Amino acid sequence: MFIQYKFLLILRGIWFVAQVALFGLVVNKMVQGAADAVGINYFNYYVAGVTIITLYSTAMFIGYDIFEEAEHGVFEYLLTLPVSRRELVLGRSIGGGLRSFVYVGPLLVVVLFILGVSNPLYLLIALASMFLFAFGVSGMSITIAVAMKSGDKYDILIGVLDALIVRLSTTMYPALYMQRAMPAYATIANFNPLTYAADLFRWGTGVEGALQFSPLVGVLGLFIFFFAFTFVGVVFYERRLEGGSWQ
Amino acid sequence: MKAILHVIEYDFRNFFRYRFFIAALIAMNLADLFISAVVFTQMTSLVNYFRFFAPGLTVVGLFASAFMIGREINMEVRREIHHYLLSLPMTRTELAVGRVLAGGLRGMLYMTPLLITNFIVLRFPTLPQLSLILLTLLLLAIGISGVSISIAVSTTSFEKFVTARGVVYYMLFFCSSVFYPLSIIQILATKGLGPLVTFAQINPLTNGSDLIRSFLLDASSGYVFSPLMLLNVAVFSVIFAFLALFAYSKILQRH
Question: B38, B136, B182, B214: which has the highest count of C-beta atoms within 10 A?
Fold first, then answer.
C-alpha cells in the first residue's frame, strides 16, 4: 500500500535533499557562531534532525491509509479477517513503523555517510530507539485517525500537530537556544518524543557528545511513547472501529 | 467583466469551504514565526532573525494560498468538472482570466492577517509604501496562481501535481531570501553553486520579500527599495498569468 504513494515518497525525498543541500548549508553559515558556542557542527546537527522529521512524517502516513480503507469499504473486509482487533491494530502500528524505516533506509545510508559513525554500539541503540519512535508515531496516527473519523479534520489536526511537534523539539535547534528564546518552549521540548529520537540519533552518530538527558532517559521516554500510543490506539480502535460514521 | 466576477465568486466560495484547512495553515505560519524564528533569533547575530523572517513569512503564506487554486483545478480536470465550466455562457478567456485572478485574490485575502502581524511587530508603512507593498504582493499572487494553474492543467494525476508543486515550492523558497539573507546565499557561489545564487537573485519571492523589508525594517538593515524589485515581480506575473491563460483555455479542450 505504501508504494502507492510513490510520488509523495519522491516528494519527501526531494524535500530531504532540498532541506539538507540548500537550507542546511545556508543556515549553517548563518548560525555558525551559536553552533560553535555549544560545540556542534550545525550542518551535521540539522541533517540528523531532518532524518527524524522525515521518519516522523512517513510514519504518520498510516492515518491516510485508514481513511482510504474506510472510503473504499476495505475496513469491513479487514474486520472479517480471522484476527482479533488487538492483533489488527498492533500489526498496523508495527507495519506503519517498519515501512517508514524502509523508506528512510536509503536516506539513512546517505546521512550516515555524511555524519559518520563513531561508536557502532551507540548507533545500534539509537536505531533501535528510532524503531520504537516510528512504531509510536504510527500508533499515534492510528489513534488520531480513528478518534477523528473524518479525513478533513484529521488532515487539519495533523497539520497543526506537525507544525508544533517539530518546531517545539530539538530537531532544528539545540535546547539551550530554545531556553534562551522562551523557557516554555524548552520545557515542552523536554517531553517531546522528537527531541528524544533526534538527541539519541545524534548521540548514536557522535554528532553530539554531551546530551541534555542520559541516553537511558531518551530510550525510556520513547518506550513510554510507543507503549502509550500503541495501546491507547488498540483501545480506541476496538471501541470506535464499528458503527461507520466515517467522513 | 460580469462573467469574470462570477468565476471569481465561484472560486471564493470554494476557498471558504476549506476554512478549517486555512485556519490550520495560518497556525503553521504563526508557529514558524513565533517558535522557529524566535529561537533562530537567539542563534544568529548576523540579523535580527525574527524581524527578518516576518516579511518572508507573508510571502510564504501568499504562495501557499495562491497555489491552492491549482489543486482545485487539477481535481476538476480529473473529475471532468471542467466540461461543465466550459459549457457556461462565457468565453474561455473570461473563464481563464477569472480563475487566474481568483487564485491571486485568494492569496491576498489569506496573506492579510500575516501582513497585519508584520505591521504590528515591525512598523506601519506610510500610505504610498502600503500601496506599493499591496501592488507587489498582488502581482506576485497572480503570478503564483498562474504557475499553479499551468502545472494543474498539465498534470494528469493529483500525485504528479503535488510532486511538481513540491519541486517548484522547494526551488523557489530555498533559493530565495525568504528564509535567509541573500548575502548568506551568496556564500554558495564559493562552493560551485553559482547558478543557484543567480536564481535566488532573480527569484520573484526574493524581490517580493526584500521589497516588504525595505519598507518595514530600519534603514540600518540594508534593505533599500528599488523599482527593479517591482519590475521583477511584474515580469514574473505577466509571463505566468499569460502562460496560465493559454494553458487553461487551450489544454482543457484537449482533455
Answer: B136
